[in-house]
Amino acid sequence: MTNQLKKVGNLLSFRKYFLAMGLILATGAAVNAQCSSDAFMDNCSSALEDFNFIKSFEYANPKGGAKAEYSYVFSKGSTYRIVVCDENIAGNKMIISLYDRNHKLIASNFDKASKKVFPALTYPCSATGVYYIEYSFQGDKAKCGINILGFTKN
């Protein structure tokens, strides 16, 4: 009888262990789902309005504080919109900075004077060339998001 009780106790401990592991993994999956580029696209693509979708760029920074950059050729006579889509946490917003081919800052969705972060950046292109889009987050916490690039002809 004592051996049977030990086996039942071991079985219950084994089940509790797997139940706990399942909950931990499910919680991790829920957190990871918040960083899903598909979910961000579903929530934010409408902010392009009448701009034509070009591409989306994903940003995931588990450590915080880092910057990322990509380049794209903009054409004179087109207006470009960069939509910012993040986890929408105050003090942890994605900041977009647009640079020309010489890495001269042209525009940003962050206004230093008011410390306000805008959800999109619209730029009427006056010269065809390579432009650089740098993105980072406020603060030093882990974060994720995407930005969506679109255009329209003037």
Strand content: 35-45%
**Secondary structure: helix percent:** 25-40%
User: What is the general shape?
Assistant: globular
Provide mean pLDDT, rounded: 78
Unreliably modeled segments: 7-33
Order of strands across the biggest sheet?
1-10-3-8
The number of domains is: 2
Plain-language structure description:
The N and C termini lie far apart (85 Å). This protein folds into two domains: 1-34; 37-153, Jelly Rolls. It is globular and about 40 Å long. It is built from two helices and ten strands. The protein is 27% helix and 42% strand. It is an alpha+beta fold and 154 residues long.
What's a concise summary of this model?
The chain has 154 residues and is of the alpha+beta class.
